[in-house]
């Protein structure tokens, strides 16, 4: 079988290094970390990535498809440059999360789940992020911004070019 | 302060989590002593004698779990730390991961020796960014210093530790779903028996402990079980990291010795309710534990037996303080939306039941509730109990039944009048300009 072409081939040495810390013969465990790394590189997981991992890790294609649809953090398509994820679970709601999400939606002119027309922002609401004591929290790409207020949000949005 | 401390014993500074400072505090001395002068059986014996209960929520005795592992069975054994902290209201393990990651790493190396584990894992939730980097940094430092990997500290014992990142799934905090996820699959929980200590990760005997439980192992071995048991109560030895949030004056993570009066902890250590308001109730240990009113907590001590006696649990240590004036119907709506979102869909009662509960509570909040809806919420909750592979369905039911039992009048008022008795308020100190909203949030 020919090896699938992939633009992510440069990650191979990293994956090989990772493999060494896992028990031999259980390459399937690398599915989640490899997908995460590819997504960090490309911004999302493309069809060719699935083809490649199927081959590289010797796991059934359906297993990778299941992982991609089961876990909420994986994406199959591009999103905005700045990904805003606002928690709206119990403690955040009790400290103003609903106001924060309404404010973000109004300021950006989009609803949660949408991306601004200029591709700058994607807004999502998410469930508990383990930041209840510093609620409300908004994640920007990977960074937690805690104890948010409307004023702090406005300042933050201005900084995210 | 609420009793003696075991974990929060040093001032947190920007460098206090790094190996150099950890070593100045005596870090890895216990590991050295274990590897050079104790047998694996002696370690497990000490842990069992300590009586420590699991700190993740279920309070299962750690020693009893470990004792199932047969050291001479000729099989590989695995060890996993559960750092998938996702129970709403819970953020205590994050304190360890960010501020004391070496406490976990050293304890895991000791546990791995006791259980004869060659490959150990920390399963950390995918959203945790700083906790991941702090922990991975500690693991890298430990490898560099010969405290992990081949022939640790020059002994015959070798152990690899992988920090495995989840990808956004509440149910993966359930032990069997967690190992299924490490195997590279969608995180479906597995039917027991066989227990995971018999057949777990890669079909081999596996011990899965919460981050805080494991972090106590080094302490237990250092102090000795007898000294450890001097903290806490007879049935709940030691301490619990409590993460407290919601309408509380001083939110954060506190270390509480078991047996401390709960009211003293909330009113003295945590400054009571935000803005001096009256307390309506607390969620004591993650939203899946039953709410307790001010009267319930007046005389209770914070330990497993006492919390169960008033109808709730220590749970995950994730405490949420709820002030007078909060709408419990809308609060339950937030919870049920969450459970519906997180049901993995494997078992019918949970997959369907969570949807029904969510739709009914949405209908009530939309002002279209029917008188029979309250009983329907309770009935569906109870139908879930014990009919699913994992405990998620049960947990949603506990939360629902607990809130309705104590605040049924609010549900009746909402249905009869089409609006909240408490103005739909969740944020009790919202700026006056922003009107609370009473519509369902899809």
CATH top level assignment of the largest domain in chain A: Alpha Beta
- Hey, which two chains have the biggest interface? A-B, 47 and 63 residues
Structural class of chain B: alpha/beta
Strand content of chain B: 5-15%
Q: Give the number of helices of chain A.
A: 7
What does the main sheet of chain A amount to?
4 strands, mixed
Low-confidence stretches of chain A: none
- The CATH superfamily of the largest domain in chain B appears as NADH-ubiquinone oxidoreductase 51kDa subunit
Helical content of chain A, roughly? 40-55%
User: Do you know the CATH architecture of the largest domain in chain A?
Assistant: 3-Layer(aba) Sandwich
Given helix and strand content, the structural type of chain A is alpha+beta
| Number of separate structural domains of chain B | 3
Q: Note the gap between the termini of chain A.
A: 45 Å
Share of β-strand residues of chain A: 5-15%
Average pLDDT confidence of chain B is: 96
Shape of chain B: globular
Main sheet makeup of chain B: 5 strands, mixed
**From the alpha-carbon coordinates, what is the Rg of chain B to the nearest angstrom?**
22 Å
